[in-house]
Write a structure and sequence with these properties.
Layout lengths: L1 H5 L3 H23 L6 H34 L5 H33 L28 H24 L4 H26 L5 H9 L2 H4 L1 H15 L1 H6 L1 H22 L7 H18 L1 H4 L6 H12 L1 H22 L1
Length: about 325
């Protein structure tokens, strides 16, 4: 146990703990204040959405780092890719399918109808191009992560096979090309969507794989540049943190001051808002990954961090919604 913990990065545990805390607190507001929508509640719920974006950047940073390590160690064959996928799936899929099964059992016990096309949850296709169904709602972000780890790594290893002498450059080039290519789908959404509310934009854009998969690739770019220019980022970590807070704060002040809503300023929410949030999250990483360890809080952050995935899977659909339903029926 001591050896395992010695290999952990304290700042990463802090980031993961902050992210899951933002998500859970946000979800709790829907239980405690389901029929209210004050400024404070809206802000807390916005931070909950940001918590998921922070998870996306963190996941991309960690998985992108593993891919770079494989490249540096010469592990660039398709068998190495399969090994990479197996390790990833063994860490995520068992818990996912267990919680999926529990959600199904809960629905049957309550006498509710199962959603149509339930089988889509098995290959994570339930929100690939359409809004996520109103069942096991946490799964929307897991679909985005799973396809992010399928698509780019496959193209990367295919490129290794085709261009054997360009391994170090291909990671960056392919990530950038894929981000640009995925932008075309956002353009299509912008010109074809008829959005009437934030909730509609959130379900039809923010939580759809095809439009959000690039969020993980922000983390890929982040780890690439931090590894390549580590000294620069470490020297400027406080400056980057200040810029991150400014960009995040200014973005949301603009939304509040000018009354920017998806139904009136869809271009802002499709092309600018999420990238600015992701950029703000990414610029905090140089500070956190070298954060000085606090012995008093270390165990707290370790406990939350190592259980964050399980907490994310069960906190809303299984726990909070069940509590909410119990009190409504009571």
């Amino acid at each position: 146990m001591t050896l395992i913990r010695s290999k952990r990065v304290y700042g990463i545990d802090v980031i993961r703990s902050i992210a899951i805390s933002l998500v859970v607190i946000s979800h709790c507001t829907y239980l405690l204040y389901a029929d209210h929508n004050t400024f404070i509640l809206s802000f807390i719920r916005t931070l909950g959405a940001v918590g998921v974006d922070l998870f996306f950047v963190l996941s991309g940073y960690l998985i992108g780092g593993l891919l770079i390590k494989n490249i540096e160690e010469g592990k660039t064959s398709f068998s190495d890719l399969v090994t990479f996928w197996k390790r990833r799936w063994l860490r995520t899929l068992p818990n996912y399918f267990l919680v999926l099964a529990l959600n199904i059992v809960l629905l049957l016990i309550l006498g509710d109808a199962l959603p149509k096309n339930l089988w889509l949850y098995i290959p994570f296709l339930q929100n690939f191009i359409n809004p996520h169904p109103n069942f096991f709602t946490e799964a929307w972000s897991l679909s985005i992560e799973e396809y992010a780890y399928l698509i780019l790594p496959f193209l990367l290893y295919l490129s290794f096979f085709m261009f054997k002498k360009q391994h170090k450059q291909l990671f960056l080039k392919l990530t950038l090309v894929l981000i640009v290519a995925l932008f075309a789908f956002k353009i299509s959404y912008y010109f074809n969507a008829n959005v009437t509310s934030y909730k509609e934009w959130s379900s039809g854009f923010r939580k759809v794989v095809l439009y959000r998969i690039d969020a993980i690739y922000f983390g890929f770019l982040l780890v690439y540049f931090i590894k390549k220019y580590e000294t620069f980022f470490m020297q400027k970590k406080k400056l980057f943190s200040a810029i991150a807070l400014f960009v995040f704060g200014a973005t949301h002040l603009l939304i509040y001051y000018f009354g920017l809503y998806p139904q009136t300023h869809l271009w802002f929410y499709v092309f600018l808002y999420i990238p600015l949030v992701l950029l703000s999250c990414a610029m905090l990483f140089p500070y956190f990954i070298n954060l000085k360890q606090n012995r008093i809080l270390e165990n707290v952050f370790y406990f939350i961090s190592t259980r964050s995935y399980a907490i994310y899977l069960v906190n809303y659909s299984l726990i909070l919604l069940s509590i909410q339903r119990y009190y409504k029926e009571d």
